[in-house]
Design brief:
Structural class: alpha/beta
Shape: globular
Helix content: 40-55%
Strand order of the largest sheet: 2-3-4-1-5
Order of helices and strands: HHHHHHEHEHHEHEHHEH
Radius of gyration: 30 Å
Distance between the termini: 124 Å
Largest sheet: 5 strands, parallel
CATH topology of one domain: Rossmann fold
Number of strands: 5
């Protein structure tokens, strides 16, 4: 006579024990992390199933936006920079403020226009460029910020396959910001690499570029390069060009600091003399 078999006990009697793992696999990371608190609030406030799902959708959307912003900021590699509120518009002798402020609204991105900032050292070109790039990131755009020397070093690969992947990588973002064109001289091969990037982005995605050289002097940056005319043609065809003139703001700050130190030194010396003990004869 066959005896009835005792059914095996469920080793996991609580169906919620495995729920966090399932939520993580679905990409609901914040819900999985705060599941107990979420269910407790739903019970205490007597949420309907619809209200519970609304709360899950809300917190996950906010968390997704936060993680997306962090990822785009990390990928952009902006580094440290001052906000435009700190920019001294009165220091440059010449700057088209309305054009810069319009560029900060990002209207040029919708038309795949380019933006070029031309000026000598210490006039805030990089500061403006980083603020434009940061505004684009906050608006949800993909951005890469690189010095042109870093870009060319990254593209100068022996493997044609790796170089092609790099070309696609730099052609993809909505905004590519290239800083410090003209500070170093490059060979014709470097000019060809830069032309390839500008050409791939032409009329597709926007490029933001800072340079301390007028376009007529780019032959000294890329001597013996045959593609400079074609490169500039594509860069400037649909572009807002801002010329900034003046003397270096960094030099001004150094002079002000030096003046402040000179004024402080006599005061300290006088204070030292007053506080020194009198010598007895």
């Amino acid at each position: 006579m066959n005896s009835l078999k005792t059914p095996k006990k469920n080793p996991n009697p609580n169906p919620n024990d495995d729920l966090p793992a399932q939520l993580k696999r679905l990409g609901l990371l914040l819900t999985a992390q705060r599941l107990d608190d979420l269910l407790a609030r739903a019970a205490s406030q007597r949420w309907s199933p619809h209200q519970l799902l609304e709360e899950v959708a809300r917190v996950e959307s906010e968390d997704l936006a936060r993680r997306s912003l962090e990822r785009r900021l990390a990928q952009a590699r902006l580094g440290r920079f001052k906000p435009m509120a700190d920019f001294d518009w009165h220091w440059p002798r010449k700057i088209d403020r309305p054009l810069v402020e319009r560029t900060l609204t990002l209207d040029f991105l919708t038309e795949a226009r380019n933006c070029v900032l031309i000026g000598s050292n210490g006039l805030g070109k990089t500061m403006i460029a980083k603020n434009i790039a940061h505004a684009a990131i906050l608006a949800g755009h993909t951005v890469l910020f690189r010095t042109v020397s870093d870009l060319l070093a990254d593209l100068d690969r022996d493997s044609p396959g790796v170089r092609r992947r790099k070309f696609r990588f730099y052609a993809r973002p909505a905004l590519l910001a290239l800083d410090e064109v003209g500070y170093l001289a490059y060979d014709a091969h470097a000019a060809d690499l830069l032309f390839e990037i500008i050409n791939r982005r032409y009329e597709r995605n926007s490029t933001l570029l800072t340079t301390n050289r007028a376009f007529k002097d780019w032959n000294t940056v890329f001597p013996n390069a045959t593609c400079i005319a074609a490169l500039l043609d594509r860069l400037t065809h649909h572009a807002d060009i801002t010329l900034i003139e003046g003397t270096s703001y960094r030099v001004r700050e150094s002079e002000l600091e030096a003046t402040a130190r000179k004024k402080a030194c006599p005061e300290r010396s006088a204070g030292t003399e007053r506080n020194a003990p009198a010598h007895r004869s």
